[in-house]
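Example 4.3 (complexes with small molecules)
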Amino acid sequence: MSWLEVSLRLQAELAEPAAELLGRLAPNGVAIEGLDEGGQSVLLRAWLPIDGQLAGRRRALEEGLWHLGQIHPFPSPAFRSIEEQDWAAIWKREYRPLPIGRRLMVLPSWSAADPGERLVVQLEPGMAFGTGAHPTTRHCLELIEQTLQPGEAVVDLGCGSGILAIAAARLGARRVLALDNDPLAVELAQLNVQRNGVAERVRVSLGSFPVDGDERIDPVELLVANLRSDTLIAMLQAGLAAWVRPTGRLLLSGLLDSDLPILNAAAKQAALQAVDVRATDDWRTLLLQRA
Ligand SMILES: C[S@@+](CC[C@H](N)C(=O)[O-])C[C@H]1O[C@@H](n2cnc3c(N)ncnc32)[C@H](O)[C@@H]1O
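Answer. The structure with S-adenosylmethionine bound is encoded below.
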């Protein structure tokens, strides 16, 4: 079979949403090249089968990039046609280990890299967001590492691949509830939780805030939510702080700088105040506590 290669060179912080979009259209996944801790620019490559669905896939890709471009300008993709390749080998060559913070190391599941003293979060690549490459995930991992006390209970709201939940368990959380409203993410997070040997402490479930029906969430010391600004603002207004104990913290990420005034107003209404802020380009991550 012949394939149409789509390649996009872009800033590292744009890689994850673009890779997610490409991953939904490309059956063999997306290769990310040149991604490292200090990496500024990365090359994404994905391959679309040249068949009857190509025109539809190409249109979906162009529409998806247009939508992403509303948040941040996106470069145009380049296309070239190629012959059959060993996709798994491409994946494995190009998906790199990521040291994060002082104590964590995110490793692709097949990696034999030596983590040294670092705590490993091993991930299977899949359709869900959360590889450690995006600044919002990185901010969360750094702040979990800095603030989590061993024995604390955690909620990871919008767990994606499960990366934050697994890291929290590795850093000593007593129990973690990982929720996502996307069944594909729940499936991948469950797999990753099992592979990391933390299934006794991490429960992955399809769900969101507020919960459906009568389920009760026991308030936790740390709630982490890497979602969109508008979702987080609506959740704060609807009482998200009730999921956190009086002395607990909310770690909110995925925020755009321009949304901070509204977010801060919603936090103030909920008697919360920001005690730490992380910034990378337009992305912001806030650590909130009761005022
Ligand atoms: C940006 S990703 C974050 C993934 C991971 N926690 C990380 O930090 O890399 C957001 C995840 O939240 C999920 N999500 C989006 N809106 C949600 C909602 N209202 N309730 C629960 N999950 C949601 C998405 O399916 C996605 O997996």
